[in-house]
Amino acid sequence: MIEIFKKINGQLQKIDQIQPNSWINISDPSVEEIDFIHSKLNLPRDFLTDPLDPDEPSRIEIEDNVKLIIIRIPLRNYDNEDIPFVTIPIGIILTQSSIITVCRHTDAVWDLLSHKIVSRDFTEQNRKILIFRIFHKTTTLYLRFLKEINHKIQLVEDLFHETMHNKEIIKLLNIEKSLVYFSTSLKSNELTIEKILRINILTLDEDDRDTIEDILIDNRQALEMSNIYSSILKDMMDAFASVISNDLNIVMKTLTSITIILMIPTLVSSLYGMNVKLPLQNSPHAFEFTLFLSFLLTAIGIFIFAKRKLF
Questions:
Q1: Cys bridge to 102: 51, 127, 146, 251, which one at CB 3.0-4.6 A?
Q2: Per-residue pLDDT tens listing for the chain (311 residues)
Q3: Whole-prediction pTM value?
Q4: 28 CB contacts (<8 Å, ≥6 apart)?
Q5: Max CA separation in the chain (angstroms)
Q6: Residue 306, number of CB atoms within 10 A of its CB
Q7: How many H helices and E strands in the chain?
Q8: Which helix or strand (DSSP H or E) is residue 157 part of?
Q9: Which run of H or of E encompasses 12?
Q10: How far, in whole angstroms, is CA 151 from its chain's centroid?
Q11: CB–CB of 112/141 below 8 Å?
Q12: Closest listed residue to residue 192, CA positions, set 245, 134, 241
């Protein structure tokens, strides 16, 4: 889908034709739409197709005075709710007369920017503000989703305190996948933002540099939070694995102790069932003696095991 916007009389309006100083938003395009933009604006074709690759890293590329900036944004995963969040690339293409955003996910840009914000900030003379808004909203979303991830970790931890099932461990593993996606994407975004400051592809003034540096600080904060939560999650899973293993050892020790105790009366009964001469075998109280000996030895065994805390 191709949407074309231009600021007319101070308002951002949707237009039908590509005009100078317009913003073109491309989402989940067909091959025909890519061919149309490629031929109409004479853009490198890979600038339009690379942001559609879900594994495309954040980077900057310049070719024939056309600049491509790819950043990875966080996205709530509605396709697979087991993994709460994923990241996807968004491409920002700067030409001499237009700015183009490209993403596979429909409405991804509008999830970052409201129409009101774009209408207010987008100007023909300063298209950098739109890019800054995308960067700023991206880091804000990372921080917000990381707080949600931390809340999910707390909920799973509370469930573990009540009962331990495989599904809780699987939930933690899926959350860990989201944190890995976040850490990788935030690291590549950080390198891209630093490169924007270093090579100055947007012709930044002092105020612009301050804005980019603030965005970089927020991105680093999100990266640090992601690494911290990931470390906490790994330690938590190791602790839960140790608890489960310890509980299993306790159960096995208890069952082994019970088995040994139950062997005592069985041993006595087996001895007095042998076809050999045994003490008191001709006594009328032989059965009572056998029972008494079994109970006595069993009680002694229980006392010894209990004293050594083997139950």
A1: 51
A2: 888 877 777 677 777 787 777 788 888 888 888 888 888 888 888 888 888 888 888 888 888 888 888 999 888 887 777 788 888 899 888 888 788 888 887 777 766 676 555 555 565 556 777 888 888 888 988 999 999 888 888 887 777 766 666 677 788 888 888 899 999 999 999 998 888 888 877 777 788 788 888 989 999 999 999 999 888 888 887 877 777 788 788 888 888 888 888 888 888 777 777 766 777 667 777 777 778 888 888 888 888 877 777 66
A3: 0.76
A4: 1, 103, 104, 105, 106
A5: 119
A6: 11
A7: 8, 7
A8: helix 128-162
A9: strand 11-15
A10: 13
A11: yes
A12: 134
Cβ-based neighbour number of residue 167 at 10 Å: 8
The pairing of beta strand 98-103 with beta strand 22-27: parallel
**SS percent in the chain: helix, strand, coil, step 5:** 60, 15, 25
- What would the two tokens of residue 8 be? 């007319």
Cα–Cα distance for residue pair 68/160, rounded to 1 Å: 47
Burial of 2: CB neighbours in 10 Å, binned 0-12, 13-18, 19+: middle
Q: How far apart are CA 101 and CA 214, in angstroms?
A: 23
**Residue 210 is which amino acid?**
D
Amino acid (one-letter) located at 211? T
Burial (0-12, 13-18, 19+ Cβ within 10 Å), 115 = exposed
Please tell me the distance from the alpha carbon of residue 107 to that of residue 124, in angstroms, as a whole number. Answer: 23
The third-level CATH classification (topology) of the domain covering 2-245 is Beta Polymerase; domain 2 (3.30.460)
